[in-house]
Amino acid sequence: MGTNSAILQSPWELRLFPPARSLVDALFPRRLHRLAYLLRALPVALGCGFLEDNYTAIPLWWAWLTLALAYDLFFIEVPRIHDVEMSPWWLLLAFVPGPNFALALILVFRSPCFPRPPAPPEPTPPIENRAIA
Q: Which of 55, 56, 57, 120 could form a disulfide with 61 if both were Cys (CB 3.0 to 4.6 A apart)?
């Protein structure tokens, strides 16, 4: 057997290429925890700052900046807001120059909300054995 056939033979073997679904989930997550948010938001913010500073040297800088800001809003901010169970209306602060930094700090330091398991059903009281008269 060649190495390509062994990639998908056993789940215990090292896979050379991750499944496409995990790559999609890595690039476009549904929920983001604190560290993942920080590790994604910092490079995007630094990249946006770089694009704004060097806009004369970079062709189509506005397209790259728009793409970076859209990725930041939809695939970094929204999953983190979803993870901490805040209202999506808080995202309006991302467009205001002062409070957007405060929102980022809140999203970095606020702990995630874990889904609560459903409450167990209440036990039904036993039916008393009554004699029919």
A: 55
